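Long-time lurker, first post.

We've been arguing in lab meeting about whether S-adenosylmethionine would sit comfortably in this protein at all. Half the group thinks yes, half thinks no, and nobody has a model to point at. So I'm putting the question to the forum: if I give you the sequence and the SMILES, can you give me back a predicted structure of the complex? Inputs are below. Any interpretation is welcome too.
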Amino acid sequence: MKHKSVLLDESIEMLKIREDGVYVDATLGFGGHSLEILKRIKKGFLFAFDQDSEAIKYSEERLKDYHNFKIIKSNFANMKECLNHENVSKVDGILFDIGVSSMQLDEDYRGFSYHNDAKLDMRMNQKQELSAYEVVNNYPKDKLIKVFYEYGEEKFSKSIAEAICKYRENKPIETTLELAEIIKSSVPEKYRRLHHPARKVFQAIRIEVNDELNVLQKALNDSLELLNPGGRLCVITFHSLEDRIVKNTFKEVTKENELYKGMPNIPDEYKAKYKLIGKFKPTKEELENNNRSRSAILRVIERI
Ligand SMILES: C[S@@+](CC[C@H](N)C(=O)[O-])C[C@H]1O[C@@H](n2cnc3c(N)ncnc32)[C@H](O)[C@@H]1O
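Top reply:
Settle the argument with this. Predicted structure of the protein with S-adenosylmethionine, as tokens:
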């Protein structure tokens, strides 16, 4: 198997799975987390979401021995609506393991990686219109700078955007390696040696193409509402922009009401409805075995 699930033991333990509970895996991917949930819910049910047909095809095969689950092909931003459609309004636990699966990265033709040459694409949902090609070839310079800066925290956003605009005056930028070369040539020599200069820009374009941060915010808000008392939301992220959204959302919903801060008898309606359970990082052993886990953070919250 090509994909190693990240923070698998920690997230499954943190979900506090009940045998008869209803759970959601918001990011089915290769089915690693879903499989572990299914092993533990003999009398329960799992809804698993993914918007990637190939991930779904793979996982259907991997999970074929189980029958108490349903895969929903949708963006997890539509989770609440999709579950309502299934007559489900509350669940006992939700897991997110956000990001690109190693399968998507490995597949040359999807254009997620600056190591493989491919058409500029990066769409997680192959049916949507906006692709990396559109962003790179049609966005005005200012918009490119904003995307690279905000979603990639790239300090050479301006010179990279300028180089892209200059290049595309002659011909469209068609492939990942073509783009990676343009990026490389527009940052100082010293910076090129630190890490691959295309890493942050590729991340930024991917976030823009898939509207990842807005999607995550909506999905987190809906997930918090969907939880039953005692239910947990476990979220694994892979970069600081996403982690910040998770951290701030969890902080906001767990904070005490200002008026009653520190008071002994807080009326029920002013009590926080959620409590923070913790933040986890991969163990040394996992870091050694799975390079993809290096920036992973798991945050866990519980509905009171
Ligand atoms: C890192 S993989 C999940 C791996 C999985 N936990 C496992 O153990 O095999 C992330 C998956 O989430 C999916 N994904 C990412 N963003 C999504 C979104 N907004 N809606 C639905 N699926 C999404 C990707 O297509 C990918 O298959």
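For your lab meeting: Strands lie at 22-25, 45-50, 69-73, 91-97, 227-237, 274-280, 297-303. The first strand starts at residue 22 and ends at 25. Whichever side wins, do check it experimentally.
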